[in-house]
Amino acid sequence: MIKAQGVRIRVPASTANLGPGFDTLGMALSLYAWIEMKPAEQTKFYLYGEELKGIPQDKSNLVYKLAQRVFEEAGVSVPELEISMASEIPLTRGLGSSASAIVGALYAANELIGAPLSADKLFDMAAAIEKHPDNVGASLFGGIISAVWDGERAHYLRIEPPKELRALAAVPSFWLATEQARSILPETFSMEDTVYNVSRAALLTGAFAAGRLDLIAEAMKDRIHQPYRAPLIPGMDRILKEAVNHGALGAALSGAGPTLLALTSRSSDRCSELEAFISDVLGEHGIEAKMLWLDPSSEGVRCLLSHEQAPFNAGSLV
């Protein structure tokens, strides 16, 4: 049954790879996007916030197109929609902005028609669209996700983030296209580098599951994507190597970048030192960056209750 009053959902941002888990590991973060979707006589869009500037406001909009894909899969017709969107997630910065849009669109459309598609089906659809399961899995299910996608089906294991875990995201003022960040990666790797990454991805997954924060520094090391991407983000190589000397548990490039992510303990008394170190190193290369202290989000995408407000209630239209 189509919900005439519409639905309102919230979906978290995500960080992917976490160092060695290329296209495999993801974690939801406490930065959010919101989508409201309802049937309408004519399709209309209401976009709120600086992060959505330039987003199409016609039927070429990704959220609209993916909603229609859900309706088609479920055998339902809802050709005209009123869609309101707001987001805190920086675009093309490596914090899962595209994944949050994909998950939000699929989930909202499914809820609008009574949720005929299972969460696993939505995950398969999202992974097929994104071409890898890490970001979409984290935004859909929350927490830390270890996932694989074989081209048709996505399989995942969800890990509840350790309560002590906290993250510092350094978001540079410039953007970096995922296609560019992928194009510089080699097509083959040595046996030594492959084993290096597989062993650390396994160790990192186990460390998160067991709450062994002491293992994160070694487990977050990587040889198959970060060394090749480092020239795209001046200062990145030094930050990844030295962040642990300034209070980080470990550090990584967030997704395809350019955001850099440092994991810390909530009880650490060196947070200001860590933030200053990262800011100073980037500043030496003329890079301005916004520093965001974030928590892992245990909650994935969800429907908001009628009394729960979203930014478009009081925000300004783009």
Question: How would you characterize this protein structure?
Answer:
The protein has helices at residues 62-74, 97-112, 119-130, 134-141, 178-183, 191-210, 216-219, 226-229, 236-242, 271-284; strands at residues 7-16, 25-39, 44-48, 81-87, 144-149, 154-159, 165-172, 250-253, 260-265, 289-294, 302-303. By secondary structure, the protein is an alpha+beta fold. The chain folds into two domains: 7-160, Ribosomal Protein S5, domain 2; 165-294, GHMP kinase, C-terminal domain (Alpha-Beta Plaits, 2-Layer Sandwich). The strands form two sheets. Strands 1, 2, 3, 4, 5, 6 and 11 form a seven-stranded mixed sheet that branches. α3 runs antiparallel to α4. The protein is globular. The mean pLDDT is 94.
